[in-house]
Amino acid sequence: MGHAPGKSASIRKLTLLLTSFLAVLALAACSSAPSSGGSPSSQPPATQPPATQPPATQPPATGAPSPVDAVSGRFVMSYAALISLWVNPSTGNDSATGASADQALRSVSEAWRRVPASTTLTQGYRILLQPGTYSAALLPNYMEYRWGTSQAPVIIQAAQGRGTARLTGDLNVFSTRHLYLIDLEIDRSGDTFHCEQCSYVLIRNSRLWGGTGAHETIKVNQSDHIYIEDSDIGGAEDNAIDFVAVHVGHIRGNKIHDAIDWCAYAKGGSSAITVDGNEIYNCGTGGFTAGQGTGFEFMQSPWLQYEAYGIAVTNNVIHDTEGAGLGVNGGYNVLIAYNTLFRIGSRSHAVEFVHGSRGCDGDTATCAAHRSAGGWGTTDAGGQYIPNKHVTFANNVIYNPAPFVTAWQHFAVAGPTTPPAGSGAPSTAKADDDLRIFGNVIWNGGSAMSMGFGEGCADSNPTCSESQVLTANAVNTLEPRLADPLHGVWTPSLGSGLQTRFAQAIPVWSWADAPAGVPMVAAPSFATDRSGRARVSAGHPGAYEPQ
């Protein structure tokens, strides 16, 4: 608060002197050495919000170079010399320099505190965790305002490789850039990693296990450039991976498993996400879905209409899900291609194309503002009315060997619905608008198994009527036998019908009718199969080319 008019100059001078004295005391307190014991006497104070706004969490302009290697499909780390901070949970000391293994700190909290906050880094940091168990008391838990760059990231890494540094508390991150977690194990009964308003986050070659206490093992929201690679992620009563309003990134080469709801989804207007080469299994509601349902206030402009945009789901193996192996719930330009689904849909169906949900979870002012900006939604509880448009399901294998079958049908395709008045959504919201299903090999029950069409993919639908789908796919006419799926060998077996069945060409995405302001997403690549083997021409259906 400013001084009131009429104050004397002497009073103002006294006030300035007092303020300066208090600032000196605060500076001395901040610069004092930590406790000389094996652990800090207390947790460091929470980082104060920055005086200036952090870098915006928005995707770069079209044409910016991709940080993903075109051959390996992995995020490329490229940085200058880093400052090393060593940590040892058994013999470290938080008064040490941390500059070498024999001068290790004891807590990750202290290492994190030494990374400058609320400023763009000019030199990066590598926090090296020596073997051992890091309890929650040694972790910062809430980690915020560390703004790395591609040349100056913040890396937290197990010094001796995967499985050697075990964290038994969670990492909760806010407004942080270029944070890379390498070779870590986070093992606890609860959520393991949460990132909000983050950019360029990499999780690689790690194990994150939420046990029986996690709601979501990994949750990322209102963030961009998120990359999860070659990791083992599971244990949740909701989802192993939950992306809400995440723009640009991939989920690649992971094991994603043991969640009661969907194993993973990207929703809330998420865009430009590739889900490739994963093994997704042992989940309840389903494997992976593009879109689902979101509180309107948690979405970001301009992605305020559909639940998901430009999502590519390729080369995955999905098995042993009670519900659908794959789905689209309110997606625009979603490609699901070259996946292998095995023993899926025991309680329902194999694949679903249904509406996404939209409601307002309490912040009615933001919901109203999003509606005024052209979004689809209301300020009340809402409903399930977000349509799908331009969805392609092509060249996949669905294999439910007898006696395993889906409970009801092959597909679930919702019929048209009428959105709430004033929501802004199309007056007739369709889940099958330009839905294309072709090139798939489906083995699930016998000829009596229902396709699941009716109001959705009706006979009048120009792209996915039942007659079209039966013509364009091998439905219970070709058994796609696999080499040894019960022991994780998913390649087509010798003599499998897949040996002689060829895939069909997939058209590129069109963004001509995308909502205003939504940026175009580059067409996905599926030139190689899950093992990296090149597909000749369009190749064969499924995640693996025949040997």
Number of strands: 37
Helix count, per DSSP? 4
**Shape label:** globular
Q: Spans of 5+ residues with little confidence (pLDDT < 50)?
A: 1-49, 56-63
Largest sheet features: 20 strands, parallel
Q: Tell me the fraction of residues in β-strands, as a range.
A: 35-45%
- The end-to-end distance, rounded to whole angstroms, is 74 Å
Structural class label: mainly beta
Concise summary:
With 547 residues, the chain is mainly beta. Helix content is 8%, strand content 35%.
Describe what this molecule looks like in 3D.
InterPro entries: Beta_helix, PbH1, Pectin_lyas_fold, Pectin_lyase_fold/virulence. Pfam families: Beta_helix (PF13229). The structure is a single chain. With 547 residues, the chain is mainly beta. It folds into 2 domains: 157 residues, Single-stranded right-handed beta-helix, Pectin lyase-like (Pectate Lyase C-like), CATH 2.160.20.10; 287 residues, no CATH class. It contains 4 helices and 37 strands. It has a 20-stranded parallel β-sheet that branches. A 12-stranded parallel β-sheet has the order 3-6-9-12-14-16-19-23-26-31-34-35. Helix 4 links the parallel strand 34 and strand 35. It is globular.
Question: Could you list some keywords that capture this structure?
Answer:
547 residues, mainly beta, Pectate Lyase C-like, 2 domains, 20-stranded parallel β-sheet, 37 strands, 8% helix, globular, Pectin_lyas_fold, Beta_helix, PbH1
List the helices and strands and how they pair.
Layout: H1 9-31, E1 82-87, H2 108-113, E2 124-129, E3 132-134, E4 142-144, E5 154-158, E6 165-167, E7 171-174, E8 177-182, E9 185-187, E10 193-196, E11 199-204, E12 207-209, E13 216-229, E14 232-236, E15 239-252, E16 255-259, E17 262-267, E18 270-276, E19 279-283, E20 286-290, E21 293-295, E22 308-314, E23 317-321, E24 324-329, E25 331-337, E26 340-344, E27 349-354, E28 356-359, H3 364-372, E29 383-386, E30 389-394, E31 397-400, E32 409-413, E33 433-438, E34 441-444, H4 466-472, E35 474-475, E36 482-484, E37 489-492
Parallel strand pairs: 1-2, 2-5, 3-6, 4-7, 5-8, 6-9, 7-10, 8-11, 9-12, 10-13, 11-13, 12-14, 13-15, 14-16, 15-17, 15-18, 16-19, 17-20, 18-22, 19-23, 20-24, 21-28, 22-25, 23-26, 24-27, 25-30, 26-31, 27-32, 30-33, 31-34, 34-35
Antiparallel strand pairs: 28-29, 36-37
